[in-house]
Amino acid sequence: MNRPETGDERRTPLTVSMGARRMPARQSTRQQGSLPTVEEVSAGGVIIRPASPGFEVAIIARYNRGGRLEWCLPKGHPEGTETFEEAALREVAEETGVEGAILTSLGSIEYWFTVPSHRVHKTVHHYLMEAVGGELSIENDPDHEAVDVAWVSMDALDRTLSFPNERRIVNLARAVIDESVQSS
């Protein structure tokens, strides 16, 4: 299997913030200590569909640089002049095969990881999305980063997702859904 070049498993969540602020989509580099730091921005989401009971979320599996399989939320870099929302919709569709419609912003997470030549400070903007079409597939992932995709019950995501910061984003999504159900 093709093993994509992703960060290692030593990711450290720094913040979870509500409200998306617009940051440059391009990478910038700054020196910190002996390794340069690269700023990266991505967008993705929690795409849901009704299931009994509750909802399911489409997540992807990929291999990290160390060869470990990681289950995570779909995400990727904005292209050209894409907004974070446009990038999130495109990336989710490419990596999962599922077309979505954005319901709301879930905020952003930041973390650091190191590759041999530099450190990466990454900000990922997340959106709650409703599945509106498509079928689960990794065939349209142009980077071939995703090696598997699955619908997983929201209740099982705490045991399935590899990263605590993404589990917190799913918990925010669950709170938004619960609030929406209670108010209707």
UniProtKB/TrEMBL annotation:
Biased composition range(s): Polar residues: 26-35
Domain Nudix hydrolase residue range list: 38-176
Family matches, as PROSITE patterns: NUDIX (PS51462), NUDIX_BOX (PS00893)
Keyword entries, A-Z: Hydrolase
Ranges of biased composition (kind: Basic and acidic residues): 1-12
Molecular functions per Gene Ontology: hydrolase activity
Location of region: Disordered: 1-37
Domain of life, per lineage: Bacteria
Keyword Hydrolase: yes
Homology family: Belongs to the Nudix hydrolase family.
Protein name, entry field: NUDIX domain-containing protein
